[in-house]
Amino acid sequence: MKKFTCFLIALAMVMSLAACGGSSNGGSSTGGSTTPAASGGSTATEPAPDGSTEAAAGAFKIGGTGPLTGGAAIYGNAAKNGAQIAVDEINAAGGIQFDLRYEDDTHDAEKAVNAYNALKDWGMQISLGSVTSKPCEATSTETYADRIFALTPSASSTAVIEGKDNQFQMCFTDPNQGTASAQYIAEQNLGTKIAIIWKNDDVYSKGIHDTFIDEANARGMAVVSDTTFADGNDTDFSVQLSDAQKNGADLVFLPMYYQPASLIFAQANAMGYAPKWFGVDGMDGILTMEGFDPALAEGVMLLTPFNADATDAKTANFVQKYQDAFGEIPNQFAADGYDCVYAYAQALQAAGATPDMTAEQLNDLMIAQFTSMTFDGITGTSMTWDASGAVSKSPKGMIIQNGAYVGMD
How much of the chain exceeds pLDDT 70, in percent? Predict the structure, then answer.
């Protein structure tokens, strides 16, 4: 651990970031932005025909799929960008080298498998899985069968890791989020009458909802309204909001992504209903949603493992670099992507892995390392993983104030 801490301190400034380019299957991809120089130690950049850059021979090929276009693109691009910053830093340090490539899956399971196959054809040795849960459930089946180790930054469904010894998560699982949210609301006395609005055809939302209900019942919390909606075509939440309001709910729990939440906030405001709002990590990204008025999210609370306002050197350095490169504050998905790459660097270094090893050889080494190591990142300290692939780390309470996330703890 001391070795890796020194490794972090020695990191150089971010080098050029990769541009987004076309891929053979119609998706977008990005290559790692630095290339080791022939003389060793230092690095050099070799531009590809599409303007992206890739590390030369001697780098570990790391790939992932995510929604780089479409309605969930905020998540995919954040994870990709965070991972790219980590790759740039690590490559610039002159030790372990990475060649990073992301493929666009548009938050679609079938397209995710096609994107995964493109990465496999490219020669991917270790994987970042997929960014969102349903696509990752599909690609995790492939990485498990192919014996390619995968560490997803943000696919939180338990089905991603269940029965697969080489599939790991940097994010909390859905059940953990539901339990932790109910505990936090109860312990902080945030509401006396709770309403829940959730999406019944989404494994992410349902998983969180079910464990929230279990924990709320165990704690004697008063859940006075429990309503749902289905596919993304549902844009009218008047029935759900009216039920919460008529039953006197003073806090509404929203286990969902930010897109439907943005509509709920706007419609509640229009009907004069102003309860406390409590969300989960899928809410992260709402402040940068195109066309959304951030004032509607004022006071929204959520649990997340990442606080962009933290003052420790590692977080401050990452946030500054992300802002400089992309013009916005990084969300949790970006931070998890960043941590995934650094966790890989630690594991590969500790295992004595070399880039000429096969994916299957690296798979066995990574299983051994991730089930025994402790990792300090920007989304948590003293992180560990059990044999199931689930991570153990502590969530942080956040609240949106004046258009920014502010720590509550």
Answer: 85
Mean pLDDT, residues 206-221 taken together: 95
What's the one-letter identity of residue 328? E
Output the CATH code of domain 174-304: 3.40.50.2300
Annotated domain spans of the chain: 2-172+310-394, 174-304
Separation of alpha carbons 62 and 88, rounded Å: 13
Residue 232: pLDDT band by 50, 70, 90 thresholds? low
Taking only the tens place, the pLDDT of each residue in 256-268 is 988 899 999 999 9
pLDDT in tens, 48-103: 333 334 444 699 999 999 999 998 899 999 999 999 999 999 999 999 999 999 99
Is 177 in contact with 155 (CB distance < 8 Å)? no
**35 or 315: which leads in pLDDT:** 315
